[in-house]
Specification:
Aspartate Aminotransferase, domain 2; 7-stranded mixed sheet; 13 helices
């Protein structure tokens, strides 16, 4: 079988409508979201309004990155220096980094074999740490039972904040990801579901949280220029209490994102078609186990994960290398040292040493692969066949 030759990091070009909108912003010279002429509405304000409507929430703030969105949301929801904040052991480093960045103490929670947060360990960690906040990371697009999670958080008096970097366009029982907690954070970094290079959103239905978020993002006293913000009365205290962290999105990135947001549902369908092709091609491979998506979950298949639970320790790195030799780029979150975008809790030394033996075991045999939309469905079938054939050599 021929090796696969397409790169796993190549994104699709910007839609023509996004290019035209970006050129118009550049020709105006008014890139800053508050730099407007009489009667003009900023691209950023329009994007916020459209994203809020997509989620079905009243408020949205566009930010400079997904990481700044998390930091803004944490502080807006009440996290103060020294507070314990619960989060998944299986996530990407910006999540504990955001907690640490606002002075919080990350407290990691075990991950199940279905790659979602462990409810029993969450309850134990909440009681042991005294934490009053949970920053749940919907890592790699996998949603926990969100009804059960909300009920558990209510019972534990935990404020729920969602990291939806991998679940934009996803849902639980038809309710969009990002509408279950007090605030939600999204990313528009290049490898996410809409692409502005860097960028993010905070979404909420709480006027006080959004007022605090808008001021902290760096609105100065120009909060009345936010179409998806609360009324002036919500800013009475926030405008004086919240520090300005200059984490705004600019009009150029907003102009690029608006046409992509309009196409999001169609793009989700395209991702899921490719995900299904890979999943079907891998199903039944001896020694390989796939994560099965619950019926209640609307998944966005922009990446895929599989496990090789019986693989020996000394076979993992050679298996990854063998896949790379045939052109398939796998990532391994169980590696002892961070590599590229991947790391695990053992390398987040700023969070302090914490034990997560279940997560360690899961990650030790978990393989992760990005699915860019530059791949065709036939490409995805070829990739699955290459992985399956390579896996057979390691039985």
């Amino acid at each position: 079988m021929d090796a696969f030759t397409k790169p796993f990091t190549q994104q699709e070009p910007m839609p023509e409508a996004a290019i035209e909108a970006a050129v118009a912003v550049m020709r105006s010279g008014r890139l800053h979201r508050y730099n407007l002429v009489e009667g003009e509405i900023a691209e950023t304000a329009l994007l916020e309004q459209e994203f809020a409507a997509t989620l079905g929430v009243p408020y949205c703030l566009a930010t400079a990155s997904g990481g700044t969105a998390m930091q803004i949301a944490l502080v807006a929801c009440g996290v103060e220096s020294g507070d314990a904040v619960l989060t998944n052991a299986f996530t990407l480093s910006p999540v504990p980094g955001a907690i640490h960045g606002v002075g919080g103490k990350p407290v990691i929670v075990e991950t199940t074999e279905n790659l979602t947060i462990d409810f029993a360990h969450l309850e134990a960690q909440a009681e042991t740490s005294g934490a009053k906040f949970l920053l749940i990371s919907h890592m790699r697009g996998h949603l926990a039972d969100m009804d059960a999670l909300v009920a558990l958080c209510d019972g534990l008096d935990l404020t729920l904040i969602e990291d939806c970097a991998h679940t934009m366009g996803g849902a639980w029982k038809g309710k969009p990801s990002g509408t279950f907690g007090k605030a939600a954070c999204f990313s528009t970094q290049t490898y996410k579901h809409i692409n502005s290079g860097e960028g993010g959103f905070v979404a909420a239905d709480d006027a006080d949280v959004m007022a605090r978020s808008i001021i902290r993002s760096g609105s100065y006293m120009l909060y009345d220029r936010h179409l998806a913000g609360p009324g002036a009365e919500a800013f009475a205290d926030a405008r004086l209490d919240m520090p300005n962290c200059s984490s705004r999105m600019d009009n150029l990135r907003a102009a690029i994102l608006r046409p992509q947001l309009a196409d999001l549902a169609a793009q989700v369908d395209r991702w899921n078609e490719r995900y299904a092709a890979i999943q079907d091609g891998l199903r039944g491979t001896p020694g390989l186990r796939l994560r099965e998506t619950p019926n209640e979950e609307t998944h966005v298949g922009s990446s895929i994960q599989f496990m090789m639970p019986e693989m020996a320790d000394d076979q993992v790195a050679p298996f990854i290398a063998a896949c790379a030799k045939v052109g398939v780029e796998l990532k391994w979150f169980g590696a002892p040292d961070p590599h590229g975008y991947t790391s695990n809790h053992t390398s987040w030394r700023y969070a302090g040493s914490q034990e997560a033996p279940v997560t360690d075991r899961v990650l030790s045999r978990l393989f992760d692969m990005r699915i860019p939309l530059t791949f065709s469905v036939d490409d995805c079938k070829q990739i699955a066949a290459l992985i399956a054939a390579t896996a057979a050599d390691f039985r």
